[in-house]
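Following up on my earlier thread - several people asked me to post the actual chain instead of describing it. Fair enough. Here it is, all 171 residues.
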Amino acid sequence: PSIGLSPDDLASLVGELAHAGVDFIKDDELQGNGRAAPLAERVRAVMPVLERHADRTGTKPMYAFNITDDIDRLEANHDLVVEAVGTCVMVVIPDVGLAGLEYLSRRTQVPIHGHRAGFGALSRSPQVGIGFRAWQQLARLSGADHLHTNGISNKFYETDAEVLDSIAAVR
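Reply from S.P.:
Thanks for posting it. Predicted structure:
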């Protein structure tokens, strides 16, 4: 959605991914509740696709809806997903903070995927930055059930060795 997908186009893509056997799909980290693809419309479009896939195959892929918002909106956004029989929510932890993550984790009924978008701003300074190993532990203690790591040969600043260390840290 952050690059212009409508909720219907997103649902079509989710259907293709589910058909291909992908078992974890997530919203884009930049798309919380924007005008182009509001959360409620994404949930309405995506959930029937996942339910039809589950009816056909017996397997329902986990879809992490990005519910990132102000702290006082997190519970309502979570509830919207759960009422539609969603299986996962996602928050951008640097945006909601550890306090927002902990607030959500005390109320959640589904797993929380923690995204790290913006982590570079917290980690890159050798004087005051925080390493991923420490940050991921704080995120997990605050309620994240699983965490996003960077990718191998990524476009960001981390080396492959740093990414592999991040992956090892969340295991």
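The chain has a mean pLDDT of 92. That should answer part of your original question.
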